[in-house]
Amino acid sequence: MRSGRFLNTLSGRFLLLTIAFVMLAEVLIFVPSIARFRQDYLQLRLEKSQIASLALLATPDEMIGPELTTELLANAEVFNVVLRRDEVRQLVLNSPLPQPIYGTYDLRMAGAYELIRDAMDVLIDPETRVIRVIGQPTRNAGELIEITLQTDGLRKAMLDYGFRILILSAVISIFTAGLLFLAVQRLLVVPIRRVVRHMQAYADAPEDGTRIIAPTTNVAELRDAEESLQTLQTQLTGSLRQKERLAQLGGAVAKISHDLRNILTTAQLFADRLENSDDPVVARSAPKLIASIRRAVSLTESTLAFGKAEEHPPILARFPLIRLAEDVVEAEGLSATTEPACLIDMAPSLMIRADQDQLFRVLSNLIRNARQAIEATGKPGTIELSGGEDDSHWCIRLGDTGPGLPPKAREHLFTAFTGGARKGGTGLGLAIAAELVRGHGGTLELVRSDGEGSEFLIRLPKSAPAEPLA
């Protein structure tokens, strides 16, 4: 079990691959080496045979006894020696052949492929053969030399040489694999295990900033991984801390909203009495005051609902969009003559179906953001609110001539606490607006944001009412 587990580790697999690749390299070296050994073996037989033939040629009348001939041939390990000198082919030494000649090999014209092929044939074939070998005499002592010999001695020598090569290859492979194993352990496995330990320790307490990994390795790829993990852990820890603070803030806001709702309800009772005032200014202002208090009460109730992680479904009703737009603009203290100027461009007859209070909050958030963006530049600007419809949707556009949104704000524009474009802002406005529009089954998107300003588009469907948000 332990060996199987080791082989499934990075170290074990790397060790096996190293041994396999080194052995493969040794095999690729072994094949031409064994072919070269065979060529050297046969060349040595040719040289010994040439020396034996020269001993015969040096005797008077070129005659020696049978015993000396046998001894010379046995020393050269051949059966026959033929020399070609001065265009004459001469059988110098001769003895009976135990079997017919199996094949002829000319070492003078053999290439690498032929040498390797012939060497493999000798290793594979266990039968003893008689072969003829032709070569070039040394020191130009003739035109060619030809010998016949058996392959059993050649094959035995080749097997012995190959065995020694394989043993040496195995030793080299094991030694090399061991060194590479230790190198991989130090350079890769140890840093990876360190990263894994940091991940496990961080998973136990992700809020603990002291458990965030600090990059230390010098390997470029591993350092990139450690730096990426450090960034991820830092962001996650910050997000968890923010969520914790948000939860605490949510509890406090819920308590405040509960008390504020009671206060506003009392104020609403007093405001209802103002409608019966004889003062015409008070009589005109009373409905707007009552509407504002009613929206404040609705907002506190929505805050309490938000603390329960839910938003009540929109209460859909038909109403003229221009009336809602004028109320929002007036509530924000803007008009066509203020600075910045706020222009309304929509048909008085345009009727839409939506939750009037929720859409009021959406438009109020968008207009407030646009006004703050323009005021931050210290230059005059314009906010334009327009509306229209097609066969399937009502469309509301809100554009401004502000500086546009920074790239970081556009990246998380509709995410709470991360999409704020204004320094010190929470980023809740657009997140709440997008959620309220989704509750209607519609969409809120940023159409354009550049140096000339920003433009948002609200699309509300004319189809069946949206499902409640959860």
Features:
5-stranded mixed β-sheet; Helix Hairpins; 16% strand; 470 residues; Heat Shock Protein 90; alpha+beta; single chain; rod-shaped; 3 domains; HATPase_C_sf
Number of strands: 12
Number of helices: 11
Q: Percent of residues in beta strands?
A: 15-25%
Helix and strand sequence: HHHEEEHEEHHHEHEEHEEHHEE
Please give the share of residues in helix.
55-70%
- What oligomeric state best describes the polypeptide chains here? single chain
How would a textbook summarize the main sheet?
5 strands, mixed
Rough outline: rod-shaped
Distance between the termini: 51 Å
Stretches where pLDDT is under 50 for at least 5 consecutive residues are 465-470
Strand order of the largest sheet: 2-1-5-4-3
Organism: Neogemmobacter tilapiae
GO molecular function, one term: ATP binding
Keywords: ATP-binding, Kinase, Membrane, Nucleotide-binding, Phosphoprotein, Transferase, Transmembrane, Transmembrane helix, Two-component regulatory system
Pfam families: HATPase_c, HisKA
Quick summary:
With 470 residues, the chain is α+β, with helices and mostly antiparallel strands.
